[in-house]
């Protein structure tokens, strides 16, 4: 998100919307939030009274005579008296009638969003009104559903349900989207009102899993720094940064307490956003634009990867260094060198026999480079056989053989590693492969390496030595909605039987892991039971969430031991630094499953 689209301003009692918007725009605000209808001193008691109400914001206020429009920069606020689920039945009916009128007017004006507050745990009638309205619309509309980040001890919210964890603002929101269903929920977004007292981490991480469109920051939350300018406390800054990373906007509410007006608040929020962007890791930079996007897992055994795909992976700053280190250690181990100079100060002379390295699935050759670098570092000579089945990648490899590797002992072996037509005459001392998927074995690495194992010496080394998959229950309303509509995506239509039961590779941001990941399957190479063993697997794991939540799917990770202490990992607790070659794998569920704190979740998984 660009800074110019970041901050909006809530304007109350706006007499001239165009004038107020122009003032706000000059001050750098991206949008304004205004009341759709004038405030009522007394709640309407009949439909006739509602029919007589004229809108505060008219068509002439958002659509100008010169053809310009500010509708996309305006959020319409529903009247505060509206409460569809009021305990007063008459008030409930009047509210439903009034809400239908106001949201219909907002859609008529083509406003960017319609703001509706949640007041209590019971929102059944509100859900019914929204569901009926959204399904009747031809064009999409966005609703900003506002709830507090957490309830405060002095809260004036109806029913005063403060002590019950089962009636927190998140539970209000969750009931609403559950009643609405995935299709309607595509139009529902959250606005979180930042509170003075902040909740514990479990509450915040649960909000992270929801589609948060904006944070509402009251000017009362700001404190003055030594120069008299408004700033947020460090805990509030931290939370703001977390939601800015999710591309949430900010809407300022309340009165300005500074002589220069609201502009200083906007400048401060923009500064926080700028600092957040500058602090992005390499991993975050490389994955920009992929957040929460469903991607079809690669199938390199079945499909030939494109040059662009190879190029992206070859930019990974960690993976190839790790492979080089693993090959170096393997060479040192097999050649018997300890890497030290002799007593005369001379380097130890390498053995005459070369170590034979097979690069299985060489792509465009980065592992050849890593092997040559490791050979140079270790002083151990190598002969490299480059095995690749992709006909287009073979052209790149042939060119590199004639140029960069012309003076190296490197040989090209075209074909599928499992059944080479002309395999090398000598077996390998070291296998080097990178056939790993986001779930470890999902790109059929076990089957490929098992099929090639007859070309490895009995005491040979495989890099990687082993890899283990991990699973955990996942909460993400965003992923749930995307998976439920994935069948409509043309790129998925040919291969998907059940869109919500198909695994995807996802750069997860809007999510919460409900319990710590646990081991699923482990594969080791070379296999000792190659003649009798099977790659079929089964496991059952039990998870216990620490907070109430909703299971929208299962998230999968992997860790690989390349050699000795050299590892690759996308496990969230020990992710390899700045490695972006793999995003987690998500197995979405067809039906979301609510879970309670301390409730056991049993997951059965077969391969």
UniProtKB/TrEMBL annotation:
Mind listing the GO biological process terms from this record? methylation; regulation of DNA-templated transcription
Q: What keywords is this UniProt entry annotated with?
A: Methyltransferase, S-adenosyl-L-methionine, Transferase
Give the GO molecular function terms: protein-arginine N-methyltransferase activity
Looking up InterPro entries in the UniProt record yields:
Arg_MeTrfase, Arg_MeTrfase_PRMT5, PRMT5, PRMT5_C, PRMT5_TIM, SAM-dependent_MTases_sf
Checking Pfam families in the record gives:
PRMT5, PRMT5_C, PRMT5_TIM
| Every PRMT5 TIM barrel domain range | 29-272
Q: Which residues form the PRMT5 arginine-N-methyltransferase domain?
A: 285-463
Q: What is this protein called?
A: Protein arginine N-methyltransferase
Originating organism: Hymenolepis diminuta (Rat tapeworm)
Source organism lineage? Eukaryota, Metazoa, Spiralia, Lophotrochozoa, Platyhelminthes
């Amino acid at each position: 998100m660009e800074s110019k689209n970041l901050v909006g301003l809530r304007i109350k009692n706006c007499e001239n919307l165009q004038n107020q918007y122009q003032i706000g725009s000059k001050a750098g605000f991206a949008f304004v939030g205004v009341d759709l209808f004038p405030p009522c001193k007394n709640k309407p008691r009949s439909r006739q009274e509602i029919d007589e109400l004229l809108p505060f914001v008219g068509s002439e206020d958002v659509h100008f005579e010169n053809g310009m429009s500010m509708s996309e920069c305006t959020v319409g606020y529903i009247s505060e008296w509206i409460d569809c689920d009021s305990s007063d039945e008459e008030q409930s009916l009047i509210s439903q009638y009034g809400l239908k009128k106001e949201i219909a007017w907002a859609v008529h004006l083509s406003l960017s969003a319609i703001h509706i507050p949640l007041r209590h745990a019971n929102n059944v009638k509100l859900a019914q009104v929204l569901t009926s309205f959204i399904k009747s619309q031809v064009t999409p509309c966005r609703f900003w559903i506002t709830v507090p980040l957490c309830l405060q001890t002095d809260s004036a919210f109806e029913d005063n349900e403060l002590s019950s964890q089962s009636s927190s603002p998140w539970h209000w929101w969750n009931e609403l989207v559950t009643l609405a269903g995935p299709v309607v929920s595509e139009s529902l977004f959250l606005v979180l009102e930042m509170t003075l007292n902040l909740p514990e981490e479990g509450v915040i991480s649960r909000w992270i899993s929801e589609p948060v469109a904006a944070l509402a920051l009251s000017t009362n939350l700001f404190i003055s720094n030594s120069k008299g300018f408004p700033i947020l406390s460090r805990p509030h800054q931290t939370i703001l940064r977390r939601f800015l990373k999710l591309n949430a906007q900010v809407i300022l509410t309340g009165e300005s307490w500074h002589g220069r007006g609201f502009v200083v608040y906007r400048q401060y929020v923009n500064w926080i956003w700028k600092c957040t962007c500058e602090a992005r890791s390499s991993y975050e930079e490389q994955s920009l634009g992929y957040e929460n996007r469903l991607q079809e897992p690669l199938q390199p055994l079945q499909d030939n990867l494109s040059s662009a795909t190879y190029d992206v992976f070859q930019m990974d700053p960690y993976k190839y260094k790790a492979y080089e280190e693993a090959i170096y250690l393997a060479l040192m181990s097999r050649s018997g060198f300890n890497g030290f100079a002799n007593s005369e100060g001379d380097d130890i002379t390498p053995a005459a026999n070369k170590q034979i390295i097979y690069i299985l699935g060489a792509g465009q050759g980065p592992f050849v480079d890593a092997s040559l670098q490791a050979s140079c570092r270790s002083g151990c000579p190598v002969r490299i056989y480059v095995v690749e089945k992709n006909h287009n990648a073979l052209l790149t490899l042939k060119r590199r053989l004639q140029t960069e590797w012309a003076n190296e002992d490197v040989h090209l072996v075209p074909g599928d590693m499992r059944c080479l037509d002309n395999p090398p005459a000598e077996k390998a001392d070291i296998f080097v492969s990178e056939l790993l998927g986001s779930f470890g074995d999902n790109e059929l690495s076990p089957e490929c390496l098992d099929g090639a194992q007859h070309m490895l010496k009995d005491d040979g080394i495989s890099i990687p030595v082993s890899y283990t998959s991990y699973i955990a229950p996942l909460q993400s309303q965003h992923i749930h909605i995307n998976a439920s509509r994935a069948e409509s995506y043309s790129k998925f239509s040919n291969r998907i039987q059940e869109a919500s039961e198909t695994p995807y590779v996802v750069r997860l941001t809007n999510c919460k892991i409900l319990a710590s990941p646990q081991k699923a399957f482990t594969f080791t190479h070379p296999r000792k039971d190659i003649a009798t063993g099977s790659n079929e697997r089964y496991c059952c794991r039990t998870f216990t969430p620490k907070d109430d939540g909703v299971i929208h799917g299962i998230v999968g990770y992997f860790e690989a031991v390349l050699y000795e202490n050299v590892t690759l990992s996308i496990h969230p607790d020990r992710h390899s630094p700045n490695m972006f070659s793999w995003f987690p794998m998500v197995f979405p569920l067809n039906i979301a499953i609510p879970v309670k704190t301390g409730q056991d979740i049993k997951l059965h998984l077969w391969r």
